[in-house]
Amino acid sequence: xxxxxxxxxYLVAVxxxxxxxxxxxxxxHNAMYWYRQSAKKPLEFMFSYSYQKLMDNQTASSRFQPxxxxxxxxxxxxxxxxxxxxxxxFCASSQDRGKGTEVFFGKGTRLTVV
Amino acid sequence: GDSVTQKQGQVTLSEDDFLFINCTYSTTTYPTLLWYVQYLxxxxxxxxxxxxxxxxxxxxxxxxxxxxxxxxxxxxxxxVQESDSAVYFCALVDSGSWQLIFGSGTQxxxxx
Lengths: 114, 112
Fold this sequence. Notes:
The complex is a heterodimer.
Chain A: E1 4-7, E2 10-13, E3 19-25, E4 31-37, E5 44-50, E6 53-57, E7 64-67, E8 75-78, E9 87-94, E10 104-105, E11 109-113
Parallel strand pairs in A: 2-11
Antiparallel strand pairs in A: 1-3, 3-8, 4-5, 4-9, 5-6, 7-8, 9-10, 9-11
Chain B: E1 3-5, E2 10-14, E3 19-26, E4 32-38, E5 45-51, E6 56-59, E7 62-67, E8 72-77, E9 86-93, E10 100-102, E11 106-111
């Protein structure tokens, strides 16, 4: 049973459009994250949330906006999509935000921008 | 800032061969070093964690150790199996933000 659910698994979008990537975790964790994996940068940290508050943002572009409507949800809205945004986006979570806590990853959403 | 370098992009072995993958790291604090494994179509999974406290981690036949003097840490396994074929990432927990900083990954292919 997957404990971190990401939807959809695959997504094709047109340049300039907007998409939302969904993430829910059922591990009872307090911290959630988004990572991106592409051919150019294998696994790159994007955002971290703790108790639904944004803690770190390593994404240069404001086109990427995380949204947390519930403690176990962290969606990712991407606007004005570009072909360079094509990547697999992984949602992750950990019990708390800290050095000793294990981070668990979902299976990812593969986004292709055409 | 903190960083990790993983130079071996691809490793091809035969079953029962010895595996050795090396990473180097840079940090200003005591490091927490990790190895993640990613199977095809899956997200990364934690394989091993090594800290200054334990110096070594062992799991599923894999062993990870680190060398503070050379700021390197490596993953090894005495006898690989075809089912070990996957991408292996070394990672460092950033000392400021606690985010994971990943190496570029090593694609391991084990031939039967």
